[in-house]
Amino acid sequence: MSTILNSIQNMNNLDEFARKDSLIHRINPTIKLLTTVIFLFIVISFDKYNISGLFIFFLYPVLVFSLADIPLVPIIKRILIIEPFIIGIGILNPLLESHSTTIFNITFSIGWITFLSILIKSLLTITATLLLISTTGFDKIASALRSLKVPKIFVLQLLLTYRYISVLLEELIRMIRAYTLRSPFKKGIHISNWGSFAGQLILRTFDRAQRLYFAMCARGFTGDYEFSSSDKKYSKVKVKDYIYILVWGAFFIFSRIYNISESITIFINSF
């Protein structure tokens, strides 16, 4: 029960972080979205054996963390939840790419390099995505997607799916609480009840989602995303927004073309 409550609290924390007022928060949502997309594409474009070139890209999340005044620990906790799945995907690389290589007189399977590359790329991309949500908010991201002419059906699907997660977790809490009251001496849900429990959860969340949809229609929902007053406040792109994306875009492209981390290492070793 406490784990589920923590999950809901974590989602609420992201929304609370997005309501802060900092230099990063005041950047146009569309500009932040485009900057993040550029960052993701460039990081993913690196060759699977090029690890050293990725380290300089940690500068982006570090500076955003500092300027946005976002707590580091909650973001790290979310990253740690996802990383085991990434490890499960890449852990077989040392077996699949078994030919050896030698670095610093140490011989090991080249699969470990690709495995480390997957971990670093996932760490960078997940952190950048969480920072975008934490400094912008999902509603403003949806507004930015609509301003970029993304089909409204896709934006609504994305937005409602994000909101539906909290609905599902709330229904799950109610069901676990009811199950615990009926079986006070059982620890957790018995395996024989898992099937019916999951089925009831899906039916309850569908019913709750339908009631929410009817409530939205009663309040004038027509199937299109409406900009809120806070969205309109930051809808106009200003000079500082152009500077933000141009500086970061130039840095990302330059770092992709030239291996800055390797150049710094060579410069330090020359002394």
Give a description of the structure:
The structure is a single chain. The protein has 271 residues and is mainly α. It has helices spanning 2-18, 29-44, 59-68, 72-90, 93-96, 111-136, 138-147, 152-182, 194-218, 229-233, 239-257, 260-269; strands at residues 100-103, 106-109. A hairpin with a 2-residue loop joins strand 1 and strand 2. It starts with a helix and ends with a helix.
Give the biggest beta sheet: 2 strands, antiparallel
Average pLDDT metric:
80
What's the β-strand tally? 2
Question: What is the spatial order of strands in the main beta sheet?
Answer: 1-2
In terms of per-residue confidence, which ranges show pLDDT below 50 for 5 or more consecutive residues? none
Distance between the termini: 57 Å
The number of distinct helices, counting runs of at least 4 residues, comes to 12
Broad structural category: mainly alpha
Quote the beta fraction: under 5%
What is the string of SSEs from the N terminus onward? HHHHHEEHHHHHHH
Shape: globular
Helix content: over 70%
What value does the Rg take, in angstroms? 23 Å
Characteristics of this structure?
single chain, 271 residues, mainly alpha, two-stranded antiparallel sheet, 12 helices, 2 strands, 3% strand, globular
